[in-house]
Amino acid sequence: MSIEVCNESGVPVDESLIASVARSALDAMRVNPAAELSILVVTEEVMSELHERWMDEPGPTDVLSFPMDELAEESRRPDAPETGPALLGDIVLCPEFAKAQARKAGHGLADELHLLTVHGVLHLLGYDHAEPDAEREMFALQNKLLADWRTARREAAARAAQQRSDAAVLGTAGLEDG
Predict the structure, then answer these.
(1) What pLDDT, on a 0 to 100 scale, did the predictor assign at position 74?
(2) How many whole angstroms separate alpha carbon 170 and alpha carbon 168?
(3) Tens digit of pLDDT for each residue in 61-80?
(4) For residue 56, what are the contacts with CB-CB under 8 A and spacing of at least 6?
């Protein structure tokens, strides 16, 4: 899976964690591993322009998703040549706007950006929250995907810490490899 994160916002963000949470969500949703995703992190000014141009809404917002049409296999002719990796689309994040939401929610900006990334991925995959039932479904899935990613990260960190500890003990005992 190819995920490109480009930060043009001037706000420091951990691009590798944003890519990681997006990859985790896409894997969990069984998206083809050859798929491509672009994530752009922008200023409030740029987000305002995009929000007004594409959504007819004034001012900035936290996240926008721009799905590509290339995923619709049923729209391709049966005799069409095989396509390359599918372009899922683009997710645009605005950390300046998201800061206030993070404070209200009682967590940090990084957590808010991870949530917004998963939210954007779900929009790319066709999920919506315009109706109450659809909102419940999307937000429950969003919360599960985010919780699963956080659990996997904690478990990986614990395994790495245990391996470092084991290596230190073995090294002290003179039993290290190598």
Answers:
(1) 43
(2) 5
(3) 999 999 985 544 444 445 55
(4) none
